Amino acid sequence: MRPALACIVTSLALVTGCSSQEATSCRSVVVRDPMPDWADAGFADGARVPHVFGSAGQIIVVPFAGTLVATQELAPRNKVLLIARQSLQQVTPVSIEAQHAGSGERVHRDREIGPGSLDMPSAGCWRLTMRWGDQTDTIDLEYVDEQQAS
Questions:
Q1: What is d(CA 95, CA 42) in angstroms, rounded to the nearest whole number?
Q2: Whether 120 contacts 70, CB under 8 Å
Q3: Residue 14 contacts by C-beta under 8 Å, 6 or more apart in sequence?
Q4: Nearest alpha-carbon partner for 102 in 13, 31, 7
Q5: Quick one: CA torsion of 60, 49, 18, 8, rounded to 10 degrees?
Q6: What are the chain's domains?
Q7: How far is CA 34 from CA 1, 89, 114, 136, in A?
Q8: What is the per-residue pLDDT across 117-137, written as a single tens digit (0 to 9) for each?
């Protein structure tokens, strides 16, 4: 990379308030395409529901409000739907190890496939490693602070 271009990229990262690690490592891409066949039960045909795919394509997170908001509160804030590709015959617990891309902060969450909350304590990109049954997938989710959500 040419020095002038490197300087511009670095300056943009500083102005937007993110580190170069955050700028390059968060892969949270919310798509509004129709849901894949294996995930569209309960949705109208061709529904364009905002969702994020896991990196291995084994899980989808549907954030019901669209934007995920960081919260320190004990009351659940972010309702999401977890949809697993693998057909499940019973309620399946999901173990979630989450790491903040900027600070390295780590949190653990336990929940189930299906609807429920998925809250993180601070804004930024969170990489979630999810394990359920014999499956594992990783997904990046972007959380904003209260002021950005308003």
A1: 25
A2: yes
A3: none
A4: 13
A5: 120
A6: 27-149 (2.60.40)
A7: 38, 25, 19, 24
A8: 999 999 999 999 999 988 999
Which structure tokens are listed for 72?
A: 């320190």
Per-residue pLDDT of 34-78, as tens digits, reads: 999 999 888 888 888 999 999 999 999 999 988 999 998 888 899
Residue type (1 letter), 96: I
Give the 3-state DSSP-derived string for the chain, with helices as H, strands as E and coil as C. CCHHHHHHHHHHHHHHCCCHHHHHHCCCCCECCCCCHHHCCCCCCCCCCCEEECCCCCEEEEECCCCEECCCCCCCCCEEEEEECCCCCCCCEEEEEEEECCCCCEEEEEEECEEEECCCCCCEEEEEEEEECCEEEEEEEEEECHHHHC
